Amino acid sequence: MDGSPVPLLLLSLGLCCTRIHGHRSEVYPTLHSSSTRPLQVGQRLELECKSPIEDSGVFWIHQDKGGNLQFIVFISHLSQPKFVGNVKTSARFEVKKHGRLYSLVVKSFKQQDEGNYVCLILRDRALYFSRHLPVFFP
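Structure tokens predicted for CD8A protein (138 residues):
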């Protein structure tokens, strides 16, 4: 992020108020974990975000235990993934796209990865946030 309060305000509103545009509709992405077992240190974790529209592209955001928001990656149908620093790969994360399903993989889950995860899409100049998904060790 560039330090401007505007993007942080927008993300904060999305994290706390997913119903800001009224009732949840077919526009909002859905987010869930593919794992059903309790997390362990070093475990691979896959999160899946289903976009309600084709070829929307998805942003992945992490909110740590201290409430800090961190951009992880953007992936679309048109281009390579863009991680922090505009790089195409990450030592910590992988992303995949299959149709309208976008996956974020935490390669080796650590305490620094605990927190809330959110995916969001941009459609018609509006941001649509999934509900946050809390991911913590037991």
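The two ends are 31 Å apart (CA to CA).
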